[in-house]
Amino acid sequence: KRIVVLVSGNGSNLQAVIDACQQGRVNATLSAVFSNKASAYGLERAQAAGIPAFSLDPKSYANREAFDAALAEEIDAYQPDLVVLAGYMRILSHDFVARYAGRMLNIHPSLLPKYPGLHTHQKAIDNNDAEHGTSVHFVTQELDGGPVILQAKVPVFEDDTAEDLNQRVQTQEHNIYPLVISWFVDGRLSLREGQAILDGQIL
Ligand code: GRF
């Protein structure tokens, strides 16, 4: 199976997927990595692993639809079975989401449906939550709203900063994202009629 990953930044989740592919925990080839930011460290991680890595500058396109259409054309040249969003910090156009329906995953740093959008760690602190975490979900038209596949919880301690929580959450992300990706590439996971199905069971 072939995977294309989209990043905007550090790419620690990309690294976790690279490592999982190299170690045979994910039975797939990382065909290419794309970024909307030329400075994304994730691009360097890809290059270091011998994966074709490209950035597209949104400023070179008239609007979101034009950028997403160009990106989709680049992605489709690799004929991916799965598109993995790994810290890809751009709103996706309707057509882009529709094109990859049922074969695009995202990881979001909260226990969805709590805290879609940005600044999730600070929100968990501000609300005195006892627990926080991360969610892997199928991407649908609703931002951070697609069916959840797997979550990992972490405790929130009294003196935690947002950065403390970020680190605790990311450690879990690096475990659960490769695991979910392995389920998908092994044909165990699908999106049917808006529901995530694993081994024939609704999640
Ligand atoms: C992750 O925490 C992920 O949940 C969120 O963006 C962050 C990306 O981190 N969507 P990295 O670029 O994978 O290090």
TrEMBL record:
The active site is at residue 108. Keywords: Purine biosynthesis, Transferase. It is an enzyme of class 2 (transferase). It catalyses: N(1)-(5-phospho-beta-D-ribosyl)glycinamide + (6R)-10-formyltetrahydrofolate = N(2)-formyl-N(1)-(5-phospho-beta-D-ribosyl)glycinamide + (6S)-5,6,7,8-tetrahydrofolate + H(+). The keyword Nucleus does not apply. The lineage of its organism: Bacteria, Pseudomonadati, Pseudomonadota, Gammaproteobacteria, Enterobacterales. HAMAP family: PurN. This is Phosphoribosylglycinamide formyltransferase. Belongs to the GART family. GO terms for molecular function: phosphoribosylglycinamide formyltransferase activity. SUPFAM superfamilies: Formyltransferase. (6R)-10-formyltetrahydrofolate binds at residues 64, 89-92, 106. GO terms for cellular component: cytosol. The keyword Cytoplasm does not apply. Catalyzes the transfer of a formyl group from 10-formyltetrahydrofolate to 5-phospho-ribosyl-glycinamide (GAR), producing 5-phospho-ribosyl-N-formylglycinamide (FGAR) and tetrahydrofolate. Its EC number is 2.1.2.2. NCBIfam families: PurN. The record marks 144 as: Raises pKa of active site His. It comes from the Bacteria. Residues 1-181 form the Formyl transferase N-terminal domain. Pathway: Purine metabolism; IMP biosynthesis via de novo pathway; N(2)-formyl-N(1)-(5-phospho-D-ribosyl)glycinamide from N(1)-(5-phospho-D-ribosyl)glycinamide (10-formyl THF route): step 1/1. One of its GO terms (biological process) is 'de novo' IMP biosynthetic process. It comes from Rouxiella badensis. N(1)-(5-phospho-beta-D-ribosyl)glycinamide binds at residues 11-13.
